[in-house]
């Protein structure tokens, strides 16, 4: 309800908050912490609104994928079926799917059997694999993680195996679709985690509570949503129009975004340049490592739910 109210009944707070967000990095979070909140839009409402707009436009225009649409996928399959071969696009998709799974200890042969490398055994379905596992001594059976993994690989093979080709493309498309739709949840999980990092970095600053770090990050996320929309738009224009000079603008924008985050941190926590730079670098290392971990977790989850 608040979302639709924000769309249809802007009272000026959103725009005044937006101006201050870009004009004075870290200012809004500091004002909120000091209790001066009446003149600005509530950060949580602002976050919900900007994130909804961002992901709507992202999924509509900027989301990467192999195919530009379902119709092209259908046409590619029809051509492959009539020609009894895969077209170039399907070949690329299959090559990519093989590249993604080149380290997976599972081989699919021409008879549609799943071969577990190392065991030399072949299985056509999950039940056959389970029967084989039960026939082995307990000490030689696969662990629970490998069993779940093999079950999932068999299910994916059954779901995406296409005699006419194109299954590799479809698998990657569905996987990316599920993964990108999990990004809002990943950001939600990352917020308290990053707030914890800031809490540890500024443990000596007793005036900052855990919630204060969270509010600071919410405003930083809001800036990032708007920044990325502009960045993706210019990048798309550069790709379509082949304006090489836009590449330099994108580089400057990226550097400006990094500086904005640093400046927000320095203004909000009121520390000197040297201390802020050190903590900014440590914070970015921690967030990068944790983001990679979150990406891995959510990507693995996407594999199990497609």
From TrEMBL:
Lineage: superkingdom: Bacteria
Pfam families hit by this protein: DUF3667 (PF12412)
Keyword terms of this UniProt record: Membrane, Transmembrane, Transmembrane helix
Residues passing through the membrane, by range: 44-62, 183-202, 214-234, 240-261, 281-305
Name of this protein: DUF3667 domain-containing protein
Provenance organism: Pinibacter aurantiacus
